[in-house]
Amino acid sequence: MLKILNHTFKDGTKRGCWSLALIILWAICSLSFAADNPQFQLGDKLSIFSDKAYRKNQGRYFEAVGNVVIISQKDTVYGELASLNQEDMMVKIEGNVRVITQMMTLYGSRVDYNITTGAAHIKNARILTSDFNLVANELIRVSEDEYVAKEAEFTTCKDCAESWSIYGKNIRLKVGKYVQINHGLYKIKGVNVLYIPYIVLPILTKRKTGLLVPRVSSRTGEGLSFEQPVFWAIDDHKDATISPTFWAKRGYGGDLQYRQRFSEMSWAEFNTRLVNDTIYQPGESNKGESGETFFRYFGEFESHQFWSPDLNSHVRYTGLRDLDMVRDNPQFTDLRTISSDFGLNGFLNWRQEMFSLGAEADYLRNELFDDPVVFDRSYVQTMPRLSFNTTPYSVLQSRTPLFQHIAVGADGSFSRFRQVHENEADFLRNADRLSVQPYVMWHLLNWGPVSLKTRYTFDQQAYRFDDPTQDHAGKNAGLMKTEIGFSMDRIFGLAYEEKVPLKYVSEEQLKKLRERREQGLSPIQKTEKKNRLVGDLPEFEPAYTKDYLVQSRSSYRHSQEFKFVHHFITSQNEYGNKKFISDIKTNQSAFFDYEDSLRSQEYLFGASATRTLVPPENTLEFQWNNSLTRKSPKNFNYLDDDKYLRDNFSYTKIGHFNVSQGYLLNEQDAEDFRQKLTRLAILTGYTGARWNVNLSEYYFHYENQNIFNLNLTRRFEYLNIFANYNYNSFASTNLNTLNFGGQIRPTDTLGLAMVKDIDLEAKKDIRTVYSLDIMPHNNCWILNLNYRESLVDNRYSFNIIFNFGDDNFDRYRNDYFGVKRL
């Protein structure tokens, strides 16, 4: 080599440089080639790489030193020093040992690894996964997915081993299934809190049978209640949760939940609460123990079956022994009470291209009944209701004015109303009703922004009464609705996506764009600097490494529509049973539902749904409808089904403002002009990134009455407020209620929430709920404190939510304003 160098430099400097470069390249390649080849290899079973290697005892003993890498079947082991004895096929690795398996990574100071079986014995071991952490003095690998740890600590916290952990002398770990701890000590911040002789914790996303976190609550005057849920994973499609509960002075009981999924869109769920109550007695208002026990229950069953794309069914049943169960257990029953009655509801629906058929049935218990344990057998049941609907069938379609499009169709139903025991002297309560509404839709013309169309419906009902002494009855009405409209649109801006070179974007604009892209909460805490630099390093923004900035622009369309709508009843007849006809004309209590009202009188009755209708007899209605729609470019892939050409925009309705006022043409002789006017309707709303407002106002001129509703939600960076106000000034349906509340997250570790329901007419607080969430930075647990105050009682409760690596914990903590906490 020296001769080569001497010869090289004698021939000249330039030639010598080239030769020296070739020699260096040859040396590097030689070293790389040596590193890429194992120092020891045993077929495909074992390969050992290292900086240096030694062999002893005729090659039966092998040592590797420096950057040792051992590849043994599915495992890879890293260390600084390794020795192999081929007689027992044991490898001993020392120095910052790392064992990488298919499921996890193990760390230790020393590993004894059996090449034949894959078993391992690790000293000072540590396991880090996305689901749990484990630190042990000794860790024994029994099989590919089973480990035994000696004198170890286990926690599901990903970055907070010192926050809480469970120490155990013996811990058996089944990867992807569970961890079994014997003689455990529960620790918080390193302090022993509770001795646990035996516990099994899940370390899997798949459901597993076991104990859930207990719940504790308190009701004023009754003491602390304790609930211990037990989860039973029956199989992949069924599970149950059994929650034995001690209700303090009220006695013992529990909750039961059963869930089953038959297919992607077919499921069933059953929930019930059982209480062996020592306080409650029917008809008494006891606040202390009554001396006797009364067994109470509330149950709910709900199932949806998607038999085929054309056929589906839904069944829901709620039942309870006494009606006061709703008052005494609002936290359980409020979520499962949807009306003022309980019982069976169900429907079956079959859809075809030209028609659909449906069947409904109700067998209900009246909640507004004097005796809490007696079934109101005079309550009218619907058993059953059969319905049919047709899709509009086009009879004529052309470009000829006045005959552009004519379509026909029909809707109808058959309903059977029965009392369990006939008990009604004033009204006829047991009847069969056939209702049919054929219709014709006639689109007369479209001339630029002007459109003209009409619709005629023949609405008829026929009644047959269960009492043979009562004559049949019927009624019908011809309803015509004709409207002429003028519409116009205006578009603001252009929706597109562009790439702007960064050299044309100022620093101030870049900062604003970055802040706009940031989502979620930023920690409100000051952290100490970890570097010794004078000043701060700028934050790294991955988007700025590109040469351009993608910027999206949206366009907005404002649509206005002016309409004149004429409502007219061409004919109206009643026939048959005079008592029934007289009853439905004069008293809405005679109705089975609002379909029984005369069409000319429907708007006169008390419910908001009918009172706000435009009188159909002979009324001219003016409508002014406005809508604001946003058009935004989508993130698209032009290689995906040609969506680049046909599906690259999204449309969102963000605002509306509609006004409606009717004029009664039959009231020309009225002395007061206000008698000629129908209700004035104003409906408006706006939906934005942080705003959501909806308002509806119905003003009745002659009566000087209002039906008003306002919904408001406003979200700030650390605050979310909401309110709902309802007002109805009519004496028969007087309503004046306010529901409001808010959520605030002043720091990352603290969240506060409150909701309040007030009856402003009675000047009473119906319900108030306060909630406090303590969420430490360690991301291990959340403490929820809750106080509920209602007309019935006051109740305290708290719940500890642990991080077991599931999505629910992450969403509860990180999407604070998106999770319902009250």
Task: Please provide a written account of the structure.
It is a single chain. This protein has 822 residues and is mainly beta. The protein has a 26-stranded antiparallel barrel. It is globular, with a radius of gyration of 38 Å.
Unreliable sequence segments: 1-14, 27-35, 518-541
Portion of residues in beta strands equals over 45%
Gross geometry: globular
Q: What's the alpha carbon Rg, rounded to whole Å?
A: 38 Å
List keywords for this structure.
822 residues; mainly beta; 26-stranded antiparallel β-barrel; 13-stranded antiparallel β-sheet; disordered N terminus
How do the helices and strands line up, and which of them pair or pack?
Layout: H1 2-10, H2 13-36, E1 40-42, E2 46-49, E3 52-56, E4 61-72, E5 75-85, E6 90-100, E7 105-114, E8 120-128, E9 133-143, E10 146-155, E11 164-174, E12 178-188, E13 191-202, E14 210-211, E15 215-219, E16 223-227, E17 230-235, E18 238-246, E19 251-263, E20 266-277, E21 294-308, E22 311-320, H3 325-328, H4 330-333, E23 341-351, E24 355-366, E25 380-390, E26 393-397, E27 405-419, E28 431-447, E29 450-465, E30 473-492, E31 496-501, H5 507-517, E32 548-553, E33 555-576, H6 578-586, H7 608-611, E34 618-633, H8 643-646, E35 649-664, E36 677-687, E37 691-700, E38 705-715, E39 719-728, E40 735-747, E41 750-759, E42 764-774, E43 781-790, E44 794-802, H9 807-814
Antiparallel strand pairs: 1-2, 2-4, 3-4, 4-5, 5-6, 6-7, 7-8, 8-9, 9-10, 10-11, 11-12, 12-13, 14-17, 15-16, 15-44, 16-18, 17-18, 18-19, 19-20, 20-21, 21-22, 22-23, 23-24, 24-25, 25-27, 26-27, 27-28, 28-29, 29-30, 30-33, 31-32, 33-34, 34-35, 35-36, 36-37, 37-38, 38-39, 39-40, 40-41, 41-42, ...
Helix pairs in contact: 1-2
